[in-house]
């Protein structure tokens, strides 16, 4: 062991003393934010009038979060390294606000929260009050990409941030309550996917303070040996830092982080010497387990009840301060324990000996550009979509697996947005379904990311791969969220029904983008693109469990400034929409399209035009042959399978009752159905009525639940004239056409409904209804006898009356 000189010991003691002063300042500001509306510098005796009438916030985790922040500041200053701080216990928001205020970032972002007595007062008065800031580490908090309100996603966001960011280390604090969630449990698998040669590093800090809001936690009550076995099995080697003596804990934590950083550098140096295509055998990454008391340095006991170190410290340890003089006295003593007279100068500014401990510029964790990814964002280099377009001689003449062209498009996006070191700015995230979803062309230029052993029987696995496949929707979407929020681009592709597994993540990310748009300092980031395929209508072999279009309904009520829902009917439409979505910013783009072979209708030029308009009349499919006269019925569709059934219904009407005036409308952008004032894409009433008329009945074939269309057209002229057929929770393992029959959205059901709703009762209408009912009966018997659809259905193609689209 190398002997440490007296001079070195003194220097280290001075650093420790300084860091403990920063920590005391952060803890003081945290408590002040929770409790105080006045006398925030404690320059006079505390009275009930100085206390907020409503006490909100979370104290228990905050001192631990500030301790980690403090020590990381020291490491950053010593190493000039870039760190991103992700806070799983995001309810410790006042701690992160306090630390970013101490480092000066908060005031730079919000000049009204100045570095003086008035600024401290504003800082405290804004916390968890009307017109102020939330109690969590929200989008308003500088340095944050992770709100932490919904637990489970800290480590997955950390991994997404680290991918393709080789110079970044992500310190990810995981609370022991969050450690009990399913997504977090799955997230420990990062070492199987993180490439040390081209990615950054994640340093998990499992903060075990022993309790969640109302009781103990599993890992908090587990032994060190049990926690070690658990983490080692996931690819981590933990170092334990434990205790309640601040000086000892800070010294041990600093040593643990220094050693972790040394080991990370060692792993990365070895990998980068060998290149991104190599993997390191038996590599385990460092992790830290920090055991400190919950509510550390707060009241130890209140009214005879132990507080520090118990779940009673989780939120507001002293809740009756305005009414209880004893509690008020305890609060005053608590605040004074941090020695505010040594934190603030005469003007209320942070004293220089504390303020100077912060890193400088963008190295401050509150100011890092990695937490404001738009600062790092470069537009994707996108190849021209014309080179992937299908040639469509006539509508409905070609059948093709719709999503295959998107795989080819993304293959070349990978190529054009990769760098010489094996990294890049674009990734596909998919739960083991890339090839199943017909996106396998990407494997022509890259593999699946995989850092574990590979056998001769594996396909497209390698350490250098940049297609992210893991059988967890939470991980796929969370990785993409972390990836886009730190300045990159991507898409999350999954089976439609199982997108609901991570549905609440969509809600949370939408809320983040919604509020980010109101903050001028938050630069726009790439949109979150979600591709839903293997849809409810064509899960032929999987059955009812795989049939659920609910994500559409989930996103429709969310922020209109953020949410977009796209239902391309064919491949060229998908290309046009995807090109638009990859270029867009600050949106959640939901694209729903099936992977199976489908009839193709639109040329790329037509697809581009309709994608821009959102919806259009398909003149070639209707029978409006008298200009200026209203149609007798409008047939509308949104989605690939409904479009085919609507067209088949239109063709039956044309053949049986050609004098019935039928208009066919296709909707590609679902949000155009909303009134203009309700969504940026909403059509004006005049434009809406140009498509659907003012009072003609509309029979609408829809991909999802019918209620969605009724919700969207509410407020339009005579919305009761819309008669929607869609998915009605009828499903099983059956033929494609039987699915639409079961849900009463088949061409025969649509024809019957159209005849019932038409403005005129045409001749031969009764005969056509009888024919449709007979076909439904034939279908019922045929599929059960032959296990496939009727030939006239199975082999159906659109035939234009004139033989052309004109």
Automatic annotation (TrEMBL):
<feature type="domain" description="Xylulose 5-phosphate/Fructose 6-phosphate phosphoketolase C-terminal">
    <location>
        <begin position="595"/>
        <end position="798"/>
    </location>
</feature>
<keyword id="KW-0786">Thiamine pyrophosphate</keyword>
<dbReference type="Pfam" id="PF03894">
    <property type="entry name" value="XFP"/>
</dbReference>
<feature type="domain" description="Xylulose 5-phosphate/Fructose 6-phosphate phosphoketolase N-terminal">
    <location>
        <begin position="20"/>
        <end position="375"/>
    </location>
</feature>
<dbReference type="Pfam" id="PF09364">
    <property type="entry name" value="XFP_N"/>
</dbReference>
<keyword id="KW-0456">Lyase</keyword>
<dbReference type="InterPro" id="IPR029061">
    <property type="entry name" value="THDP-binding"/>
</dbReference>
<dbReference type="InterPro" id="IPR005593">
    <property type="entry name" value="Xul5P/Fru6P_PKetolase"/>
</dbReference>
<dbReference type="InterPro" id="IPR009014">
    <property type="entry name" value="Transketo_C/PFOR_II"/>
</dbReference>
<protein>
    <submittedName>
        <fullName>Phosphoketolase</fullName>
    </submittedName>
</protein>
<dbReference type="InterPro" id="IPR018969">
    <property type="entry name" value="Xul5P/Fru6P_PKetolase_C"/>
</dbReference>
<dbReference type="Pfam" id="PF09363">
    <property type="entry name" value="XFP_C"/>
</dbReference>
<dbReference type="InterPro" id="IPR019790">
    <property type="entry name" value="Xul5P/Fru6P_PKetolase_CS"/>
</dbReference>
<comment type="similarity">
    <text>Belongs to the XFP family.</text>
</comment>
<dbReference type="InterPro" id="IPR018970">
    <property type="entry name" value="Xul5P/Fru6P_PKetolase_N"/>
</dbReference>
<dbReference type="InterPro" id="IPR019789">
    <property type="entry name" value="Xul5P/Fru6P_PKetolase_ThDP_BS"/>
</dbReference>
């Amino acid at each position: 062991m190398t002997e440490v000189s007296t001079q070195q010991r003194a220097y280290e003691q001075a650093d420790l003393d300084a860091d403990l002063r920063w920590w005391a300042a952060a803890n003081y500001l945290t408590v002040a934010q929770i409790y105080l509306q006045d006398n925030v510098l404690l320059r006079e005796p505390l009275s009930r009038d100085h206390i907020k009438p409503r006490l909100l916030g979370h104290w228990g985790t905050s001192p631990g979060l500030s301790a980690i922040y403090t020590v990381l500041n020291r490491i950053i200053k010593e190493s000039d390294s870039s760190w991103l701080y992700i806070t799983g216990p995001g309810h410790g928001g006042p701690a992160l606000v306090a630390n970013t205020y101490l480092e000066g970032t908060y005031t730079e972002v919000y000049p009204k929260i100045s570095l003086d007595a008035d600024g401290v007062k504003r800082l405290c008065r804004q916390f968890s009050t009307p017109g102020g800031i939330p109690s969590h580490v929200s989008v308003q908090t500088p340095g944050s990409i992770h709100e932490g309100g919904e637990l489970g996603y800290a480590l997955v966001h950390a991994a997404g941030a680290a991918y393709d960011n080789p110079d970044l280390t992500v310190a990810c604090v995981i609370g022991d309550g969050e450690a009990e969630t399913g997504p977090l449990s799955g997230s420990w698998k990062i070492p199987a996917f993180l490439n040390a040669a081209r990615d950054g590093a994640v340093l998990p800090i499992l903060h075990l303070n022993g309790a969640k809001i109302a009781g103990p936690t599993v890992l908090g009550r587990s032994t060190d040996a049990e926690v070690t076995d658990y983490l080692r099995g996931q690819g981590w080697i933990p170092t334990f830092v434990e205790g309640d003596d601040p000086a000892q804990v800070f010294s041990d934590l600093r040593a643990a982080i220094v050693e972790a950083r040394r080991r990370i550098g060692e792993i990365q140096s070895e990998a980068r010497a060998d290149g991104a295509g190599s993997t390191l055998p038996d590599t385990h990454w460092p992790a830290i387990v920090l055991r400190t008391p919950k509510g550390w340095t707060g009241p130890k006991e209140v009214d005879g009840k132990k507080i520090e170190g118990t779940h009673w410290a989780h939120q507001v340890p002293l809740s009756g301060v305005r009414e209880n003089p004893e509690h008020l006295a305890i609060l005053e003593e608590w605040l004074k324990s941090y020695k505010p007279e040594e934190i603030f100068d005469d003007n209320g500014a942070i004293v220089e000996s504390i303020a100077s401990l912060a890193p400088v510029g963008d190295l401050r964790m509150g100011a890092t550009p990695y937490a404001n990814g738009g600062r790092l964002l470069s537009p994707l280099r996108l190849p021209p979509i014309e080179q992937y377009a299908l040639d469509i001689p006539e509508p409905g003449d070609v059948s093709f697996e719709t999503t295959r062209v998107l795989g080819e498009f993304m293959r070349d996006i990978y190529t054009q947005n990769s760098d010489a070191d094996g990294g890049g700015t674009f990734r596909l995230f998919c739960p083991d379904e890339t090839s199943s979803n017909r996106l396998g062309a990407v494997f022509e230029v890259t593999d699946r990311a995989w850092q574990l052993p590979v056998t001769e029987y594996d396909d497209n696995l390698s350490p250098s791969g940049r297609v992210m496949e893991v059988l967890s929707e939470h991980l796929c979407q969370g990785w993409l969220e972390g990836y886009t929020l730190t300045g990159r681009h991507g898409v999350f592709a999954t089976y439609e029904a199982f997108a609901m597994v991570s549905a609440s993540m969509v809600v949370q990310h939408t809320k983040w983008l919604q509020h980010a748009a109101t903050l001028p300092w938050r630069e726009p980031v790439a949109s979150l693109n979600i591709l839903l395929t293997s849809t409810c209508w064509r899960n032929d072999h999987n059955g009812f469990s795989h049939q659920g279009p609910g994500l559409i309904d989930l996103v429709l009520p969310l922020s209109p400034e953020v949410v977009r829902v796209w239902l391309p009917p064919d491949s060229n439409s998908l290309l046009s929409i995807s090109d638009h979505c990859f270029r867009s910013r600050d949106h959640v783009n939901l694209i729903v399209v099936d992977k199976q072979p489908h009839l193709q209708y639109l040329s790329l030029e037509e697809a581009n035009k309709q994608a821009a308009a959102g919806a259009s009349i398909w003149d070639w499919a209707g029978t409006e042959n008298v200009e200026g006269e209203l149609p007798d019925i409008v047939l509308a569709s949104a989605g690939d399978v409904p479009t085919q059934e609507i067209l088949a219904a239109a063709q039956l009407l044309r053949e049986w009752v050609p004098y019935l005036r039928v208009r066919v409308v296709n909707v590609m952008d679902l949000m155009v159905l909303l009134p203009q004032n309700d969504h940026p894409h909403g059509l004006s009433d005049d434009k809406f009525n140009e498509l659907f008329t003012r009072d003609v009945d509309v029979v609408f074939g829809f991909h999802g639940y019918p209620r969605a269309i009724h919700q969207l057209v509410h407020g339009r002229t005579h919305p009761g004239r819309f008669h929607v057929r869609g998915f009605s929770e009828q499903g099983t393992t059956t033929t494609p056409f039987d699915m639409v029959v079961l849900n009463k959205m088949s061409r025969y059901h649509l024809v019957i409904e159209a005849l019932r709703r038409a403005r005129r009762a045409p001749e031969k209408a009764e005969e056509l209804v009888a024919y449709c009912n007979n076909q439904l009966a034939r279908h019922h018997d045929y599929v059960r006898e032959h296990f496939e659809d009727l030939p006239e259905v199975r082999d159906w193609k659109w035939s234009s009356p004139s033989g052309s689209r004109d």
